[in-house]
Amino acid sequence: MQITVTVNGDEYTADVEPRLLLVHFLRDKLGLTGTHWGCDTSNCGVCVVWLDGTPVKSCTVLAVMADGHAVRTVEGLADGATLDPVQEGFVQCHGLQCGFCTPGMMMTARWLLDHNPDPSEDEIREAISGQSCRCTGYENIVRSVRWAAQQGQGVRP
Q: Which residues contact 4 (CB under 8 A, 6 or more apart)?
């Protein structure tokens, strides 16, 4: 099937098999490897992207379901060479750790801050509860999101 998807503001048209998952379309067809692939069962959350502004686990979305829609990946967070406050927070507060869960965490955190620019620690933990980090107890990730919120730059256009 032929699909046309807008990814990070750029339109792409490609022929895909109907069973191709969005995560594989992004990584294998478009070369956007920032979106990680972990479990294929929607448990780990490392594959979170936005579909029409809503976070989805791209391992459970078929690429054909994104036809005619907008997808935003972790590669679309930065504004050129300027990191998004969430990205900067992960650097400043050591939220990156091994990095495997980082793209999904960042996409979820950005969505949270766009909807709640000053979340509590409990609200941050609730927002990221659908994602697994095998490195820590999430302390540095929560600190990273709080850092971004405290910069007064929680909401991005």
A: 11, 12, 13, 67, 68
- Distance between CA atoms of residues 35 and 23, nearest Å: 7
Q: List pLDDT tens digits, range 96-107.
A: 888 888 999 999
Q: Which CATH superfamily is domain 85-152 in?
A: [2Fe-2S]-binding domain (1.10.150.120)
Show the tokens assigned to 67. Answer: 């036809």
Q: Tell me whether domains 2-76 and 85-152 share a fold.
A: no
Residue 63 gets which letter from DSSP? G
Taking the C-alpha atoms of residue 21 and residue 154, their distance in angstroms, rounded to an integer, is: 31
pTM of the model: 0.92
pLDDT for 157 equals 47
The answer to whether the beta carbons of residues 85 and 154 sit under 8 Å apart is yes
